[in-house]
Amino acid sequence: MQTTTVDVPTGDGVADAYLVRPDGDGPFPAVLVFMDAFGLRPRLAEMAATIAARGYVVLVPNLFHRSGRAPLTDLSGLADERRRAELFQQLGPMMARLTPDVVARDTAAYLDFLAAQPQVAAGRAAITGYCMGGMNALRAIEAHPDRLAAAAAFHAGRVVTDAPDSPHLGVAAVTGELYFGHADQDPSMTAEQIATLERALDAAGVRYRSEVYPGARHGYTQADTPMYDEQATERHWAALFDLLDRTFRR
User: Fold this and answer.
1) Kindly report the CA angle at 20 between 16 and 22, in degrees rounded to 5?
2) Report field, pTM of the whole predicted structure over 0.85
3) Cα dist from 142 to 91, 147, 171, 177, whole Å
4) What DSSP string describes 146-184?
5) Homologous superfamily of domain range 2-247
6) Residue 250: pLDDT above 90?
7) Is the pLDDT of residue 83 over 80?
8) What are phi and psi of 112, to 5 degrees?
9) For the chain, how far is it from start to end, CA to CA, in angstroms?
10) Catalytic amino acids?
């Protein structure tokens, strides 16, 4: 496998990103990975490599590229739960800049970059996202149903809000399949909000699975944080590869 840092041109500058290619000539299906708020770091490169090892070309872009290249914050205290509030004070404005329009435009650029890679198979890609990346992965497939065949969101927050552009309100645009792996201890995605999401998906006739991971906290896949849950993470891998392998009939 080959992991490199690449620069992806977008309409608003250049996004630094991890690109992970499997061994062999391919062609391989493409998978976009949308980061959590803590950004590009070794844990995300490791997760991308796990996906690539199954025979996918994986791109993990720095969604905060308008604020600079990663890392954009000091992550030395990431394992200290007491410092989360301090980190999110710095990250909050960057997260707020990821409006639906920005996510749609950037996603098009990321998909264009992937499609231009010689090892990437023709056809639609898939996307998976974590925490805020899960919410934005849903926005991405809503904006580009013709280019994304499937989306997975793990411990995604703020998928259901009171805002007129809440992500759950756009699911009727989705033509592919969705998977949601919710943390059952997640104040940003409560049981009531999960039920609202599922009602919207049912009403729109979207193919999906929505599952709650018992005992898991928001961020359960991130091994470099206190939220990590090994059992929930293994369940997430099984669900993700089931979705990807079925989507690409492998």
Assistant:
1) 165
2) yes
3) 25, 10, 6, 11
4) TTEEEEEEES---SS-SSTT-GGGGGGG--SEEEEEEEE
5) Alpha/Beta hydrolase fold, catalytic domain (3.40.50.1820)
6) no
7) no
8) -60, -45
9) 19
10) 131, 186, 218
